Amino acid sequence: MYRMLKDAKADIMLSGGKSQFVAPKAAMPWLDINQERCHAFMG
């Protein structure tokens, strides 16, 4: 997953909690997208 993020030149990583530790290794912002979330995101 780390290589895929670097090759794609992604700006942000959206994932669940299991892969959250890849984002710091890739020096990339990470947003936790979880199906149990009770509120919406704004941006």
Short description:
This protein is of the alpha+beta class and 43 residues long. The protein has helices at 2-8, 22-25; strands at residues 13-15, 30-32. It has a two-stranded parallel sheet.
What is the element string, with H for helices and E for strands? Answer: HEHE
Strand order of the largest sheet: 1-2
Query: How does the major sheet shape up?
Result: 2 strands, parallel
Shape: elongated
Query: What radius of gyration results from the CA coordinates?
Result: 11 Å
Number of separate structural domains: 1
What percentage of the residues does DSSP assign to strands (E)? 5-15%
Number of helices: 2
> End-to-end span in angstroms?
25 Å
Helicity, as a percent range:
25-40%
Structural class: alpha+beta
| Chain-averaged pLDDT | 79
Stretches where pLDDT is under 50 for at least 5 consecutive residues are: none
How many E strands? 2
Describe the structure.
The chain is an alpha+beta fold and 43 residues long. The chain has one domain. Helices cover 26% and strands 14% of the residues. It contains two helices and two strands; from the N terminus they run H-E-H-E. It has a two-stranded parallel ribbon. Helix 2 links the parallel strand 1 and strand 2 (30-32). The termini are far apart. The model has no long low-confidence stretch (mean pLDDT 79).
